[in-house]
Design a protein that fits this description.
By secondary structure, this protein is of the alpha/beta class. Helix content is 26%, strand content 32%. The strands form 4 sheets. Strands 5-6-7-3-8-9 form a 6-stranded mixed β-sheet, with helices on one face. Strands 11-17-16-13-14 form a 5-stranded mixed β-sheet, covered by helices on one side. Strands 2-1-4 form a 3-stranded antiparallel β-sheet, covered by helices on one side.
Length: 383
């Protein structure tokens, strides 16, 4: 009988982190001399407060939280960049952090030379990098550019090269920070496939991300930070729901004054809620001013990654009273969505586009695992 007791990879025990910040800056030699005899008052910023958790070997562990929650500080402490003000971090194995992809790149060197330079930073010999080089270049899709200086690469090209090198790291624990938020859609799919292989192979991975889709798709467990404390740790569905609700409360979904500035066509939308449950109906009241170029209205929905989900328009018959009721059933997967609108002239041609008019969220309250962009009626039948 095999031992099923999980082995810890990382133990974080009651850590606190504080930064002491001077209230006045020393910008000259004279100011420094003055500060010697005059006390320079300091303030203490508490970033992490009594944080404790354990990540087990073989887990794909997610860390989420809004900006300012303490994620970056926690990552740098796990990576050994910062030391705790109080508490302890125990690592059971080697750790390789990829907090900022591309750190260590030299813009004056070629792409080829940067591959070998970063390989050396990861602990590989020149001979070992020779065996990996072609595979790295193929994954990054940068074959024709490898002899150009890195400073001539676009930011997307640099990210692709950095990630292609990073995934060659062979260590017990890997940390990735927001790597799925960079690169084009095709490259992001390749990154997702690499992470799926990590999960399948029981590689211990810590993924820090704002994408709840990535958390749901990859992570076996997750943690949410809020104001330097652990808000919750556990099932990924619970973390995704709490994070979404936190963004709604904070007003991060869409500032109202920003929405109003986008109503260049005078479109007015009322009735939208911030949060809907599965299969809820969205009912909107849409109004517009008297204009010769507005005979109809169209509404479309896209997700936060600008993937088009659904759209329709009122047709070529001119709408009376310069307003309309719009009703749609939201059979969508959990996450954040955007409403886009268009106006149509008498020929049925688009006369104006208004992108990202409003935003809303679908609550993560599904009792089954789903994916994609919409929920289709489905069942599994056993014989």
């Amino acid at each position: 009988m095999t031992n099923s007791i999980p082995e810890p990879a990382i133990e974080v025990i009651g850590i606190h982190k504080e930064f002491v910040l001077p209230q006045s800056r020393t910008t000259s030699l004279k100011q420094a001399a003055v500060n010697i005899v005059r006390e320079n008052k300091k303030t203490t910023q508490k970033v992490l407060n009594d944080v404790s958790f354990t990540i087990n070997k073989g887990e794909f562990f997610g860390i989420v939280g809004r900006n300012g929650s303490g994620k970056s500080t926690l990552l740098k402490m796990l990576a050994g960049v910062y030391t705790p003000t109080k508490g302890e971090i125990k690592l059971h194995g080697g750790l390789t952090p990829f907090i900022e992809l591309g750190v260590g790149f030299n813009p004056e060197l070629s792409g080829r030379d940067n591959v070998y330079l970063n390989g050396a930073l990861l602990g590989y010999t020149h001979k070992q990098m020779d065996t990996m080089y072609e595979e790295i270049v193929e994954f990054a899709e940068l074959g024709p550019f490898m002899d150009q200086k890195l400073k001539n690469y676009s930011s997307g090209m640099q990210v692709r090269l950095a990630f292609s090198i990073a995934i060659k790291a062979k260590n017990d624990i890997l940390i990735f920070d927001e790597v799925l938020a960079v690169g084009d859609e095709a490259f992001q799919r390749k990154c997702m496939e690499v992470f799926r292989q990590y999960r399948k192979n029981k590689q211990t991975v810590i993924l820090v991300t704002h994408s709840m889709d990535s958390v749901n798709a990859l992570c076996t467990r997750a943690l949410m930070l809020e104001d330097g404390k652990i808000k919750h740790i556990g099932e990924v569905d619970d973390i995704a729901r709490l994070y979404t609700e936190s963004n709604i409360r904070s007003g991060e979904s869409k500032p109202k004054d920003e929405v109003e500035s986008e109503h260049s066509k005078g479109i007015n939308v009322q009735g939208l809620k911030s949060l809907y449950s599965k299969n809820d109906y969205m009912e909107l009241s849409i109004g517009w001013p008297e204009r010769d170029d507005i005979h109809g209205i169209g509404v479309s929905i896209s997700n936060i990654n600008d993937i088009y989900v659904f759209g329709s328009n009122s047709g070529t018959t001119k709408l009376k009273n310069k307003k309309v009721k719009y009703r749609v059933r939201l059979n969508l997967i959990p996450g954040e969505y955007k409403i886009n609108m268009a106006t149509y002239n008498e020929k049925g041609e688009i006369s104006g586009l208004i992108q990202d008019v409003e935003r809303f969220n679908i609550r993560n309250d599904y009792d089954t695992t789903v994916g994609g962009v919409t929920i289709l009626d489905h069942e599994y039948i056993t014989s």
